[in-house]
Amino acid sequence: MTSPVWHPFTQHGLNEPIPLVTHASGAALHTADGRRIIDAISSWWVTTHGHNNPRIMAAIAEQAGKLDQLIFAGWTHEPAETLARSLIEIMPSPLAHVFFSDSGSTAVEVALKMALGFWANRGEPRDRILVMQHSYHGDTIGAMSVGARGVFNQAYSPLLFDVGTVPFPADGREQATLDALAEQCQQKPAAFIVEPLVLGAGGMLFYRPEILAEMRAICAHHGVLFIADEIMTGWGRTGTLLACEQADIVPDILCLSKGLTGGSLPLAVTLATPEIFEAHRSTDRAKMFFHSSSYTANPIACAAANANMEIWRDEPVLERVADLGRRQQVQLDRLTSHSKISNIRRMGTIAAFDIEDATGTYLSAIAPRLMAHARERDVLLRPLGNTVYVMPPYCIDDADLGAVYGVVTEFLD
Ligand SMILES: *Cc1c(COP(=O)(O)O)cnc(C)c1O
Questions:
Q1: Is the Cα dihedral 25, 306, 91, 286 positive or negative?
Q2: Contacts of 256 (CB under 8 A, 6+ apart)
Q3: What is the pLDDT of residue 380?
Q4: How far is ligand 1, taken at its centre, from the CA of residue 346, in Å?
Q5: Which residue from 100, 106, 110, 136 has its CB within 8 A of the most atoms of ligand 1, so it is best to mutate?
Q6: Distance from the alpha carbon of residue 138 to the mean position of ligand 1, in angstroms
Q7: What is the mean pLDDT of residues 393-402?
Q8: Where do runs of H (alpha helix) occur along 268-394?
Q9: Which atom of ligand 1 is nearest to 108's Cα?
Q10: Residue 348 beta carbon below 6 angstroms from any ligand 1 atom
Q11: Residue 256 pairs with which residues in a beta bridge?
Q12: Which of 90, 145, 163, 279 is buried most deeply by CB count within 10 Å?
């Protein structure tokens, strides 16, 4: 019998196998037919400490016995209060206000609405958003609008709003980015939204912290709000808690999701400075922040995030991250002699390289071939076009990491 399930980013007409996973632990997924699959992409960048982390699972179970769900407009609960306080403690000042939502895309929509609300409530309405070439911020209409245009959103393009785009600051071409940003800032846009240091879905493209710092300074100089989308880069992925730390900058608005619950339950937050919060605070109800989703700050998801915060507080997470980075580098160094690959790169726990391919697009034939090759050998990989990346949970051991690269090397050969 065929399944009624319609999967995301899946072409059902190709009838590719869809493995049925029954349970997971650490870096391993276990399928109904008894296979042990190594999760080399952290289940699409969400799993940080490992699947079914015992501390997070225990927190979920405990909270499930107390309070399942609560309207969050005008009501509150302990898991959300605790989480907001812990976030403010660990995230850089002056980020001081936490708005909850339930996915990365929604956190981005909230950030954009906060930016426009900020200007509208100050009586100086602005509506233009600046973005970086090749960026990705999610799949809802607003998030797609501020992301790169391509085959994945072509059909919806009539609904996408117009944005100003600055070129990606590739090595040696950074000045063009900075010049374009400074020029576009003169048209008084509401905000600039950017993925700090790593453009994930755009192909694991890296740029230097100095450029991030300069972009932040340009926005500050022109009074343009700076939105950092750390949905992928946050929670240690790039070697530090936030990628922004490496540039020693603080955004006006910060989006977090994915690793916020250790990758266990859907939850997102958009953090804002007092200035942005105060622009919405008034005795005038027309100035409140008009956004909510039903599951905003779901108590069970907040409890999972609180357990994640405790893990960050009392386990050596950054040491694990550094260690995984070193082990990734050892594996990458073995690939350098391979003639078919280029742009070998690593940032923190993220390792990536490109396979030579004439088309070089998202629909490059290499991705599905490598994905199938890896799946048949019990490894979960999902290249972005001709870009292969390995981004495992921080707990992956040497044997599993070696097996992942073994499968990749075999494919390249
Ligand atoms: C994954 C991602 C998003 C979207 O998050 P969802 O939870 O999938 O909606 C937004 N921005 C970046 C940088 C991402 O990697």
A1: positive
A2: 87, 107, 230, 231, 234, 235, 268, 269, 270, 271
A3: 98
A4: 20
A5: 136
A6: 5
A7: 98
A8: 274-280, 299-314, 317-335, 366-376
A9: 10
A10: no
A11: 269
A12: 145
Handedness of CA 142, 144, 149, 151 (dihedral sign): negative
Alpha carbon distance 104, 46 (integer Å): 11
Q: Is 218 helix (H, G, I), strand (E, B) or coil?
A: helix
Q: What is the pLDDT of residue 359?
A: 62
The rounded distance, in Å, linking the Cα atoms of 272 and 349 is 27
> ∠ at Cα 225 (137, 80), nearest 5°?
65
Q: What is the 3-state secondary structure (H, E, C) of 53-95?
A: CHHHHHHHHHHHCCCCCCCCCCCCCHHHHHHHHHHHHHCCCCC
Closest ligand 1 atom to residue 103 Cα is 7
Distance CA(183)–CA(46), nearest Å, equals 36
CA 154 to chain centre: 22
The larger pLDDT score, comparing residue 146 to residue 358, is at 146
Handedness of CA 159, 228, 204, 309 (dihedral sign): negative
Please give the single-letter amino acid code of residue 62: E
CA torsion sign for 149, 154, 156, 157 is: positive
Q: Provide CB contacts within 8 A for 299, sequence distance 6+.
A: 63, 66, 67, 68, 69, 70, 77, 79, 80
C-alpha 196/C-alpha 206 separation (Å) is: 9
**Sorting pLDDT into bands at 50, 70 and 90, what band is 34?**
very high
What's the order of all strands across the beta sheet hosting 21-25? Answer: 21-25, 28-31, 36-39, 379-380
Q: Among the atoms of ligand 1, which is closest to the Cα of residue 139? A: 9
Nearest alpha carbon, ligand 1 atom 6: 104
Q: What angle do CA 195, 198, 199 make, to 5 degrees?
A: 65
The model's pLDDT over 97-147, given as tens digits with 9 standing for 90+, comes to 999 999 999 999 999 999 999 999 999 999 999 999 999 999 999 999 999
Q: Is the pLDDT of residue 357 over 90?
A: no
Mean pLDDT across the stretch 169-180?
A: 97
Are 196 and 230 in contact, with CB atoms under 8 Å apart? yes
Across-strand partners of 228?
A: 194, 254
CB 135 near ligand 1, within 6 Å: no
251, pLDDT greater than 70: yes
Q: What is the mean pLDDT of residues 247-256?
A: 98
CA dist., res. 49 & res. 320, Å (int): 9
